[in-house]
């Protein structure tokens, strides 16, 4: 196997016996121990347990059992998803000792298919952040430049794929937490439609926006992973009872004659000029492949950040009330119950989590509920209508994933609003609940640039198809950092 191999290549090698599952785990274990001290992408290393799982996979294969296309493949998990028997912290000290007794549904489906968990990956605490500087286990460095952020909140998962510390990662995207790190780290990342993949076992941030999805080297790899995790789950009432396509065959269909919408609201003077050039060059490649480029408008885009940062803190305030240091996790000493709650949450939550809880509690309070929460829900509906209208005219929408390249550590930590604006291009699709893919499309100042391909809800095969065809004629996704 070459140093950087795709999931499809690993799958073929494992099936043919060119490499064993034990050898695959050992390969990545060595890389994690050699490289991750520079990145801090893992919170919990489970390589020892992974070796035991790999032995079982090899024994089953040697016995002639027909295994799935991901059996024996090592993968990592954002630490905001529960994993049976493996510590799951949410990157917050309040859950430092928490070991779930069950897997989240997405992880259960992957492990049942024979994929092997190699570790739990660093993130902004409970998904609260755009830079991965809000983890209580330290920030995650970008593999392309360790003085820069990896993106948030699933920065550890993106960095691990970029550095080839596992074949793929499973992350979570509420308002850009897969796509922004994928862009910053130069990998492929998919925000699934709301309801396409079960949220059961994902630590809830904003329950009406949270989605679970994969990071990998290519759109084809993402399609393979999605095939295993998509579909209705009786444990999550919000999952859609919709058929799951054969993604790998769907992405091979031609794109000639299909329409790409380019929204003018994403190409303003605030967009870095080099990023704009890379994205426009990428869109031009699709025109060469026979797609039609259509200028469109998503007029309520400018309200997305304000809307997002009302609704998400409101849901945070409700969801995080369950973390009190009493039932599970880490408890701080207090002279009575109220002081125990206070001490546990003070020590166990980082500042950004506390900020969002307070904002949400304020917005939900008597006298503010109608002015903030209800109004934000109305604007969210308008944003969704923008996308619904656009998809009557075009098949997919293309935009930059982020307005800038990965920034330096500390550049935005003193200005939360400046940090929040980093999500300007990813939060609208989240509010609309649609599918969105980020693929590498070039470099600016030596750092990766991402192209965001947005498709209708429950139509992940469309952005994946466009991403796959783009990666067949370009090599940006095969460029890797020198570590």
In short:
This protein is an alpha/beta fold and 483 residues long. It has 16 helices and 13 strands. It has a single domain, classed as Amidase signature (AS) enzymes (Alpha-Beta Complex), CATH 3.90.1300.
Task: Write up what this structure looks like.
This protein is of the alpha/beta class and 483 residues long. It has one domain: Amidase signature (AS) domain (Amidase signature (AS) enzymes, Alpha-Beta Complex), CATH 3.90.1300. Helix content is 39%, strand content 15%. The chain is built from 16 helices and 13 strands. A hairpin with a 2-residue loop joins strand 4 (141-142) and strand 5. The mean pLDDT is 96.
Question: Any descriptors?
Answer:
alpha/beta, eleven-stranded mixed sheet, 483 residues, two-stranded antiparallel sheet, Amidase signature (AS) enzymes
The poorly predicted ranges are: none
Broad CATH class: Alpha Beta
How much of the sequence lies in strands comes to: 5-15%
Structural class: alpha/beta
Biggest sheet statistics: 11 strands, mixed
CATH A-level architecture: Alpha-Beta Complex
The Cα radius of gyration reads 21 Å
Under CATH, the topology can be stated as: Amidase signature (AS) enzymes
């Amino acid at each position: 196997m070459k140093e950087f191999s795709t999931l499809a290549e690993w799958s073929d090698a494992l099936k043919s016996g060119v490499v064993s599952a034990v050898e695959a785990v050992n390969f990545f274990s060595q890389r994690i121990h050699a490289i991750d001290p520079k990145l801090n992408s893992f919170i919990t290393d489970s390589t020892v347990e992974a070796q035991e799982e790999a032995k079982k996979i090899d024994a089953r294969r040697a016995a002639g059992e027909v295994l799935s296309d991901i059996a024996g493949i090592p993968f990592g998990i954002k630490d905001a998803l529960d994993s049976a028997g493996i510590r799951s912290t949410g990157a917050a000290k309040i859950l430092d000792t928490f070991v779930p007794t069950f897997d989240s549904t997405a992880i259960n489906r992957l492990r049942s298919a024979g994929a092997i968990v190699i570790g739990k990956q660093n993130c902004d605490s409970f998904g609260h952040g755009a830079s991965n500087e809000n983890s209580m286990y330290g920030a995650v460095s970008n593999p392309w430049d360790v003085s820069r952020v990896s993106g948030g909140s699933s920065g550890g998962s993106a960095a691990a794929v970029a550095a080839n510390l596992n074949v793929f990662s499973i992350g979570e995207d509420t308002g850009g937490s897969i796509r922004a790190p994928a862009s910053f780290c130069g990998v492929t990342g998919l925000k699934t439609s709301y309801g396409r993949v079960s949220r059961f076992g994902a630590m809830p941030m904003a329950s009406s926006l949270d989605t679970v999805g994969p990071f990998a080297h290519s759109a084809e790899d993402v399609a393979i992973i999605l095939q295993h995790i998509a579909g209705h789950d009786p444990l999550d009432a919000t999952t859609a009872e919709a058929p799951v396509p054969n993604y790998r065959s769907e992405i091979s269909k031609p794109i000639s004659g299909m329409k790409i919408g380019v929204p003018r609201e994403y190409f303003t003077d605030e967009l870095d000029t080099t990023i704009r050039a890379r994205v426009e060059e990428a869109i031009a490649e699709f025109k060469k492949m026979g797609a039609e480029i259509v200028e469109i408008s998503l007029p309520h885009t400018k309200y997305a950040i304000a809307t997002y940062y009302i609704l998400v803190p409101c849901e945070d305030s409700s969801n995080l009330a369950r973390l009190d240091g009493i039932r599970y996790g880490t408890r701080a000493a207090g002279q009575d119950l109220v002081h125990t709650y206070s001490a546990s949450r003070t020590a166990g939550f980082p500042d950004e989590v506390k900020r969002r809880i307070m904002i949400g509690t304020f917005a939900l309070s008597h006298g503010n509920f109608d002015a903030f929460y209800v109004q934000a829900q109305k604007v969210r509906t308008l944003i969704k209508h923008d996308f619904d209208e656009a998809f009557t005219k075009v098949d997919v929408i293309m935009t930059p994933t982020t307005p800038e390249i990965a920034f330096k550590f500390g550049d935005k930590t003193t200005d939360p609003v400046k940090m929040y604006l980093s999500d300007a291009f990813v939060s609208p699709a989240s509010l609309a609940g649609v599918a969105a893919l980020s693929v590498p499309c070039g470099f600016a100042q030596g750092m990766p640039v991402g192209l965001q391909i947005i498709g209708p809800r429950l139509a992940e095969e469309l952005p994946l198809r466009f991403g796959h065809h783009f990666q067949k004629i370009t090599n940006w996704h095969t460029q890797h950092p020198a570590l």
